[in-house]
């Protein structure tokens, strides 16, 4: 079957989705909507599709099978609920929403409508990440005993849209936006829900009311600990995940590669020639639509990530550890 697709939000990540759609035969992009009419017009023109300023108007007129939601975080819920209500399958960008309560509203709307919704946790589609997961599951280096995840980016670059620095619109700063990638990676690679969270968050950024960095200690339900260190202050960019096993180590640099320890040194691991992550993400959604199976990044899974992000802020405010096992959504 072929699917008519619309994009809601014509910002930075929208073009990545539109480019990826060009590599998936079943997908036919037809229109995009952005409240900024000039932006919508320019992007739509470059991909030969129609432009709208009101996404509801677009969905009503275009009757798409799939809507890709690439809006600021505070609008994820309203757009996902609206699209589900109109019978559209949804690819919803991460994080699923800005609170667990909003995730629950999305889950209810989607389950009630019978459509499929995949949350864009792209980490699951990078070849080096997939290889790292295989390495863990194979037991080749023994048992996984801990994960160290470190990420530095210049988060306060002038080109970043203002809403990213407004807690009401973004849900939080770097730990919501990029932290959700790290939490997802740790949750997925560790193979078990996060059970405990302790954090210390830093609010020293030059813009807005969101945090600019923080340290997070996590432990999953299997007792595997992980540390996330993230900063958005000026510095040297870094994005590394260190996996420590009983019989060796691995270094994962998402977007670059995977290395494993051999005789005291890191050696590169050969990777398969998979399709680009955004293409694989579409294939996952299509499989889910056509088979009825939940996608890898299901709503229930993605809600867990939002729950951990919320716990990060709560732990910092209370200066105490947060235990998550009691609050998990059933089923
Ligand atoms: N998966 C990834 O690797 C990845 C990478 C970047 C961004 N993202 C996610 O994608 C989403 C969008 O991020 P971005 O960097 O593209 O942001 P952006 O600010 O560049 O784009 C958002 C767009 O939405 C538009 N918009 C705002 N309100 C609207 C409304 N009511 N109706 C229609 N359009 C509206 C804005 O004008 C803007 O063009 C976020 O959830 C972000 O976390 C994911």
From TrEMBL:
InterPro entries: Gfo/Idh/MocA-like_OxRdtase_N, Gfo/Idh/MocA_Oxidoreductases, GFO_IDH_MocA-like_dom, NAD(P)-bd_dom_sf. SUPFAM superfamilies: Glyceraldehyde-3-phosphate dehydrogenase-like, C-terminal domain (SSF55347), NAD(P)-binding Rossmann-fold domains (SSF51735). Residues 131-250 form the GFO/IDH/MocA-like oxidoreductase domain. Residues 4-121 form the Gfo/Idh/MocA-like oxidoreductase N-terminal domain. Gene3D superfamilies: Dihydrodipicolinate Reductase, domain 2 (3.30.360.10), NAD(P)-binding Rossmann-like Domain (3.40.50.720). It comes from the Bacteria. This is Gfo/Idh/MocA family protein. It comes from Paenibacillus residui.
């Amino acid at each position: 079957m072929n699917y008519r697709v619309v994009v809601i939000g014509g910002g930075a990540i929208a073009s990545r989705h539109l480019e990826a759609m060009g590599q998936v035969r079943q997908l036919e992009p037809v229109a995009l909507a952005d409240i900024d009419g000039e932006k919508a017009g320019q992007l739509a023109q470059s991909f030969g599709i129609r432009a709208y300023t009101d996404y509801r108007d677009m969905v009503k007129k275009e009757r798409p099978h799939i809507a890709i939601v690439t809006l600021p975080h505070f609008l994820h819920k309203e757009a996902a609920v609206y699209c589900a209500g109109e019978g559209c399958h949804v690819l919803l960008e991460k994080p699923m929403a800005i609170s667990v309560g909003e995730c629950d509203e999305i889950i209810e709307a989607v389950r009630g409508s019978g459509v499929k919704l995949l949350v864009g946790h792209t980490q699951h589609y990078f070849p080096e990440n997939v290889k790292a997961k295989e390495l863990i599951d194979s037991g080749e280096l023994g048992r996984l005993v801990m994960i160290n995840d470190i990420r530095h980016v210049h988060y306060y670059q002038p080109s970043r849209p203002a809403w990213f620095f407004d807690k009401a619109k973004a849900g939080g700063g770097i730990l919501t936006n990029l932290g959700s990638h790290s939490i997802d990676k740790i949750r997925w690679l560790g193979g078990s829900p996060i059970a405990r969270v302790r954090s210390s968050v830093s609010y020293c950024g030059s813009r807005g009311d969101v945090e600019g960095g923080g340290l997070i200690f996590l432990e999953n339900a299997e007792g595997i600990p992980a540390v996330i260190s993230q900063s958005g202050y000026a510095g040297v960019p870094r994005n590394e995940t260190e996996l420590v096993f009983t019989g060796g180590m691995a270094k994962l640099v998402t977007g670059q590669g995977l290395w494993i320890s051999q005789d005291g040194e890191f050696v590169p691991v050969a990777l398969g020639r998979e399709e680009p992550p955004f293409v694989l993400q579409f294939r996952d959604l299509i499989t889910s639509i056509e088979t009825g199976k939940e996608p890898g990044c299901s709503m229930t899974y993605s809600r867990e990530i939002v729950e951990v992000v919320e716990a990060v802020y709560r732990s910092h405010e209370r200066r105490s550890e947060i235990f998550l096992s009691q609050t998990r959504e059933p089923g």
